[in-house]
Design brief:
Blueprint lengths: L7 H14 L13 H19 L3 H11 L16
Helix pairs in contact: 1-2
């Protein structure tokens, strides 16, 4: 089974958001520089803000679902489907 290609910057944002929600420090960013580093930091900042604001579990779950980078859309070749 082939894996779907993922957008690395979106994944970095998601991982940064998760790190902040798990009370990790900004220094724990695994990227040294570049777009992935900046997106991780942006995700961490947004996650830290949500952490400080005390979001409840359902709101956190909804935000994480939005930020999740894995797509559930299935594209069939030549327009066929299994329906």
């Amino acid at each position: 089974m082939k894996r779907q290609k993922r957008n690395h910057t979106e994944r970095a944002f998601y991982k940064g958001y998760l790190a902040a929600m798990n009370n990790k420090a900004e220094d724990s960013c695994p990227f040294v520089n570049g777009n992935s580093h900046q997106e991780w930091i942006n995700g961490w900042r947004e996650g830290r803000e949500d952490y400080w604001n005390g979001l409840d579990e359902t709101t956190k779950a909804q935000k994480l679902e939005i930020y999740r980078t894995v797509s559930t859309n299935i594209h069939y070749p030549d327009g066929w489907s299994t329906i």
